[in-house]
C-alpha cells in the first residue's frame, strides 16, 4: 500500500554551489511511504508520519548551511569551536564559513540538489519508522511563483533561535507598488539585484575586509560565526536583516530614486509570510 503526504513543511536554508556560490533557498517537503497495513489498518498513522518528518527536517535541515561533502571544491576542518569550511566557486573566488557544528548539514553528495538532499535525508531517516514501513521517499519542490523572486542568505545575530546562524536563507517573492500600482519592472530590478546575494549588516563587518572580500563575524547564543565572501556576492545594509527592516530598506531605496512617489513594498521571507513597508520622500 502507498501513502503520501504533500506539503509536510517547508525548509529555509542556504547551500554552497560551485556555479552560484552561497544560495538561499526554500523548499516544500513531500513524503511517500510503502508498506503493509498494521493492526490499525494503516501503513503508518499520518500523525506519526508528519510529526517524525517535520521534527527531523526542522532539526537537521531548516536554517542550516547545506554542505556537499563529496565535492572536490570543498575543504572542511573540525576544531573545538566547531567547523570551518572553504568553498571554491567556479569564478575562482572563495567563500569561507565557520561556526558551531549545529549550523551545518553535511550532505553526502557531490552537489546539493533537491534529489541529492532527498536521498541523503531518506538514508538518515532509515530507522525512524516502524518495520511495517518498507520504503520511505522524500521529495523537495519549490513554491510556484509566477512573478519575480530572489534568493538571499543572511544571519540574525540577535535572534534567540536558529536564524542567528550566519549563512541561512530563503527563496522569496517580492511585491512592489508605486502610487498603488504594482510595478513588475521594480520587482524584476530587485529580483536581479538580490539573486544569490548575501545580505550583510555593516556593524558585523571586520577590519580585514577589502574591495574584493568582505569578512563578517559575530558572537551569538550558539557560538561564534564568521563568513568571508566575495564583495560582488554581497549587499551591505545598515540594519539587521529581519524581513521588516529589509522591506523598509527596499522601500526607502526606491523612494530615494523616485521622489514624490508613494512606494509600498511587500517583502516575503520564504513562503507565505513577510512584512510590508512604505516610504515617500
Ligand atoms: N518578525 C520576524 N520574525 C522572524 C524573522 C523576521 O525577519 N521577522 N526572521 C526569522 C529568521 O530569519 C528565519 O530564518 C525565518 O525562518 P522560518 O523557518 O520561517 O522561521 P520559523 O522557524 O519561525 O518557522 P518554521 O516554519 O517553524 O520553520 C525568524 N523570525
Automatic annotation (TrEMBL):
<protein>
    <recommendedName>
        <fullName>6-carboxy-5,6,7,8-tetrahydropterin synthase</fullName>
        <ecNumber>4.1.2.50</ecNumber>
    </recommendedName>
</protein>
<comment type="pathway">
    <text>Purine metabolism; 7-cyano-7-deazaguanine biosynthesis.</text>
</comment>
<keyword id="KW-0456">Lyase</keyword>
<dbReference type="Pfam" id="PF01242">
    <property type="entry name" value="PTPS"/>
</dbReference>
<dbReference type="InterPro" id="IPR007115">
    <property type="entry name" value="6-PTP_synth/QueD"/>
</dbReference>
<dbReference type="GO" id="GO:0046872">
    <property type="term" value="F:metal ion binding"/>
</dbReference>
<keyword id="KW-0862">Zinc</keyword>
<dbReference type="InterPro" id="IPR038418">
    <property type="entry name" value="6-PTP_synth/QueD_sf"/>
</dbReference>
<dbReference type="GO" id="GO:0070497">
    <property type="term" value="F:6-carboxytetrahydropterin synthase activity"/>
</dbReference>
<comment type="similarity">
    <text>Belongs to the PTPS family. QueD subfamily.</text>
</comment>
<keyword id="KW-0479">Metal-binding</keyword>
